[in-house]
Structure formats: C-alpha cells, structure tokens
Amino acid sequence: MAIGGDGLVGTLAGAICGTDTELGIVPAGRGNDFARVLGIPTEPAEAARVAYEGEPRLIDVGEVDGKSFVGIASAGFDSDANRIANEAKLVRGNLVYAYAALKALAAWKPAHFEIVVDGERHESTGYTVAIANSKAYGGGMFLAPQAELDDGKLDVVVSGETTKRHFLRSLPKVFKGTHLDEPSVTCFKGETVDVRADRPFVMYADGDPLADLPATVRVSPRALRVIVPRG
Question: In the chain, what percentage of residues exceed pLDDT 70?
C-alpha cells in the first residue's frame, strides 16, 4: 500500500515493478495526480475500499538514470518551480504549485535544450522539457493529455520560446490540456529520451528530484500492477 503522494508511489513502483506484487494507493499527497488519472478516490476510506475490492491494471513505469517514476519527469522551468514548491512552508495544498510557478517565472531566463527521442535529435530554446508516462502533474495540470499509462511509450512535451506574458496567459490551458494548440509547444513520442541543457538543471518527477542533466529517461512497458476501481 502506498499511503502518500505521487513520489511515494513512484518509489514503490521501482521496488516492485516486474513482479506479481499488486500496489494499492490511498492518496495523501499534495497533488495526487497519478490517483486522479487512475480514478482512485481521494477520500481515504473509499480509496482503501478500492485497494481491497478493485482489480489490477498493468501500467508502464518510467525511469530516470535508474530512479523510477509513474507520472511526469521534467526539467527547466519546472525544475525551478518544483524546488520552490518543495521549499514552501506557508503555502499549503494545490496552491503551492501556482505560487511556485509565479515565483519561478519572475526570475526565468530562456534555456537551450537538446532532446534525443529514440535516436532522433531535436533542439529547443524556451521553458521546459517534460517526459510523460501519465497525463497529469502539479495538482491537476494535464500537461500530456494524449499520454497513456499502458502504451509502452513516453510522451515528450517541449515548451519553447514565448514571452513571459504569453506563457502566463497560457498556463490555465494546462488544466484542460488545450495548451498543446500553442505554436510554442511541440510533442514527440518514444521509448528512450535523452535531455541536456545549456545550464545546470535537476530533473524532477512526481515532485521529487531524480537526476541532474544530462539525463536519460526510459520506460518499462506494463511492468507494474496497480489496483484500480472495477469497471
């Protein structure tokens, strides 16, 4: 049983993926995005009932330089925002993500990224490179609405160069997944993704720091059994 947030789920996923062990989840973190995507209730008693009465579903597990995750790994602007959110003491719940994004944006300077997806090289100057196993992060932001948990692929979402004003205006679109229509956003799909940048960044996933760039992200297809609601 994982009684906690997405970071705990990702850590346990690394310990049991590839085995017949089933993972039950009682969401108790700030964002609980992985449970949200799977339809697991946020109320503890209801979530515990799902863990007892639900059915297993085989899903993919992501890996950043040997460290597992289940949601979305990202670097760049997201690195700064994650660090700020983790350091925040006075802001609680999902509000911490909005606070962190605004504070990170105030100090942000564009970064140049090199992204290699299954051997194909891409470059971008802008904000963030995100590699998604799941659809959502940050307390309900559907960064990769096209991502599927059991397709054996990672969805890469690159947020390129645009003004801070436009970036701020576009942020609310992420909660509906309509930000993918923005011309500054490009998407790729693959099994192995290498990311490097022109200045130091930490790659975060499920709210936790996993690796310094350059980093390699891989997917283990249908490697984890998670108990989800029946039907």
Answer: 98
